[in-house]
Amino acid sequence: MEGLLDAALRDTLTRVGGVDRCVSEFIRVTNTVLPLRAFTRVVPELLNGGKTAAGVWVRPQLLGSDPECLADNAALLATLNPPGIDLNFGCPAKTVNQSRGGAVLLEEPELVCRIVAAVRRAVPAHIPVSAKMRLGYFDDRSAEANAHAIAEAGANELVIHARTKAQGYKPPVYWNRIAEVKASLGSHPMRVVANGDVSCVESARRCREVTGCDTLMIGRGMITHPGLGLRIKGQGDCSWDQLQPLIAHFWMRVCGRVERRHRAGRLKQWLNHLRHHYPQAQQAFDDLRVSNDPDHMQAWITEQNSTHSKCLADVLTSMPAFVN
After folding, report:
1. CATH number for the domain harbouring residue 149
2. Within 10 A of 253 (CB to CB), how many other CB atoms are there?
3. Among the options 22, 91, 113, 238, which is catalytic?
4. Which of 115, 158, 215, 293 is the most buried (most CB within 10 A)?
5. Are residues 215 and 263 in the same domain?
6. pTM for the full model?
7. Same-domain status, 147 and 48
8. What is the residue range of 304's domain?
9. pLDDT digits (tens), the chain, 324 positions
10. How many Å apart are CA 71 and CA 67, to the nearest integer?
11. Is residue 202 one of the residues assigned to a domain?
C-alpha cells in the first residue's frame, strides 16, 4: 500500500504477530537499472536477511512495463538474496496507470506474460517470482487470460484482488471470480492467493470458502486492526492497551526515516485507519488532527504511554540492532 505500509509500519505490525509474509510497496522501474540503494531504501529488511525485526519475510515488489528492464533490475535485486520478487499488475492509481504501470497492463495479457517470463529467466530458480493482479482494468473479461499468462510464464504464486481497476475499492467484492479464475488454471501448480475486503474473522472464513484459496493477503484490514491475523488464526488479538507501545515504536521509526515536516501526517494517517476498529483511536485522531507539529505528537505519545511505561520499555529493549 503505497505511502502507508512502509518499512516502519511493517516492522510495527509484524511485532503484533499473525503475519506470515509481507510484500513491500512497489519499486518503480522505468528505463534504467536502479542502484542497490534504491531497493534497500524501500525494503531495508533486505539488510536484515530479508526479514522484519520480528522475523517475518518481506518480498520486494517491482512495477514497470519493460520486460528487459524489469528483468535486469530483478537480476540485480536477486543479488541481495530476497525471499522472493513480486510483480505489480494491480495498482489502480491514475498516475501509475498513465505511466503504463500497474493494472493498465491487464489490457495486454501478452505483455504481462513477457514481463513475468523475462523476470523468471533473470532470477535464480531458488528465488520465487510472484505477481499481483486485479480482475481487469475496465472489466473482468481478461481475468482468466492474465492468470494463464502469469502461470505459463513461470510464476510461483498469483495474488488476485477481487475487483477491476474501474471498481476501485468500492463494495461489493467479487470473490466468486477468484474461484472461477482459479478453477480455469486446472492442475497448474501456481498458488492462487485471495485478496480484497478481508476485514474480520467472518470475512476471512467466507473468502476462503468462496474462493477455494487457503492463503489470504490482507491490506487495509490489518492496518485498521493489527490483531486481525492473530484473530483469524485463533491466536489472540491486540487490544488498544497492547497497541500503545507499538504506536510509540512506530513513531520512533517514522522519526528515524521521514522528514520532520511529514512525520505528523504519518501518525495521523495510521490513527485515521485505527479509529475504524478502536474507539480510543477516534479520540486520539480528534486530539491530533489539526496539528502538524512533531513535538506535539511526541508529547501525545509520551502521555499515552505514561501508564504503560513497562510495556514500552519491554518493546524498546527487545528491539534488535536492525533499526533503519
Report:
1. 3.20.20.70
2. 22
3. 91
4. 115
5. no
6. 0.92
7. yes
8. 240-317
9. 667 889 999 999 999 999 999 999 999 999 999 999 999 999 999 999 999 999 999 999 999 999 999 999 999 999 999 999 999 999 999 999 999 999 999 999 999 999 999 999 999 999 999 999 999 999 999 999 999 999 999 999 999 999 999 999 999 999 999 999 999 999 999 999 999 999 999 999 999 999 999 999 999 999 999 999 999 999 999 999 999 999 999 999 999 989 999 999 999 999 999 999 999 999 999 999 999 999 999 999 998 887 555 554 454 444 433 333
10. 6
11. yes
Residue at which a domain ends, from 218, 233, 248: 233
Which domain-ending residue is among 217, 233, 249?
233
| CB-CB contact of 81 with 75 (8 Å) | no
Are 15 and 74 within one domain? yes
CA distance 80 to 94: 31
Which runs of E-coded beta strand occur in the chain? Answer: 21-28, 57-63, 85-89, 129-134, 157-161, 191-195, 216-217
| Assigned domain for 322 exists | no
Which amino acid, one-letter code, is at 305? N
Active site residue 91: yes
Q: Which three cell numbers stand for residue 209?
A: 470458502
306 part of a folded domain: yes
157: which 3 cell numbers? 504464486
Query: Total structural domains in the chain?
Result: 2
